[in-house]
């Protein structure tokens, strides 16, 4: 019962979730379905969203559902000439950032936890950066990934398998 109370109090502290995900929906319904399910759960629990600012792909799916559900959406967008053709128009409030590092830093400051959905190299880079920051004590916020069949599974299996088996020295896998 104590663990349930602790988990409930942790969830109650969450107001804003940073979601890392791709600007594509992927090649299978499972990716979009997971994004829809996450976004609907965020609306049900009245969680706000901070994300990379894209309006297409999984970023678009999550941001549009959360915004339409009446929750706050903050898109942190780096302006690059012609990028609007790639990422579309940001849903919700937009804050421009100077570079990708500033974007991740602001996402960390604006959120209470992190969730990664499938994406490309940028998504992986964002996820590993916040994991590294947690390891270094920069933040103590929960970091989670929704494991959906993807190429990233191999990377996550390697990292978590070796950490579990303690086949690493000084924090290196």
UniProtKB/TrEMBL annotation:
It catalyses: N(6)-(dimethylallyl)adenosine 5'-phosphate + H2O = N(6)-dimethylallyladenine + D-ribose 5-phosphate; 9-ribosyl-trans-zeatin 5'-phosphate + H2O = trans-zeatin + D-ribose 5-phosphate. One of its GO terms (biological process) is cytokinin biosynthetic process. Keywords: Cytokinin biosynthesis, Hydrolase. One of its GO terms (molecular function) is hydrolase activity, hydrolyzing N-glycosyl compounds. It holds the Pfam family Lysine_decarbox. Its EC number is 3.2.2.n1. Belongs to the LOG family. This is Cytokinin riboside 5'-monophosphate phosphoribohydrolase.
